[in-house]
Amino acid sequence: ITDLPCTIVQGRYDVICPPETAMALHLAWPGSSLVLVPDAGHSALEPGTRAALVGATDAFARRAADPSYPA
Predict the structure, then answer these.
(1) 70 to 13, 36, 41, 49, 56: CA distances (angstroms)
(2) pLDDT of 8-27, one tens digit each?
(3) Burial 32-61 (b: 16+ CB within 10 A, else e)
(4) Among 49, 46, 38, which residue's Cα sits nearest to residue 9?
(5) SS3 breakdown of the chain: % helix, strand, coil, rounded to 5?
(6) At residue 48, does pLDDT exceed 80?
(7) Which residues lie across from 6 on neighbouring strands?
(8) SS3 34
(9) pTM of the predicted model over 0.90
(10) How many helices, marked H, and strands, marked E, lie in the chain?
(11) Could you tell me if residue 36 is left (phi over 0), alpha (psi between -120 and 50 degrees) or otherwise beta?
(12) In angstroms, rounded to a whole number, what is the distance separating the alpha carbons of residues 11 and 32?
């Protein structure tokens, strides 16, 4: 799956899944990008995390609709 695009969204203050694990995954997955949300913890419902997840999903939708859209 390393050739598939992936956006990893990680809260800076997440103590359940620490940012170090997201960084390790990002470094091991060449097709990934990492978004570190500076004011978030573990919950996907936090405003910064939610915005990053919606942004990543929208970007994937744009790429699916228009393959020339930049990765």
Answers:
(1) 30, 21, 29, 22, 13
(2) 999 999 999 999 999 999 99
(3) bebbbbeebeeeeebebbeebbeebeebee
(4) 49
(5) 40, 15, 40
(6) yes
(7) 32
(8) strand
(9) no
(10) 2, 2
(11) beta
(12) 16
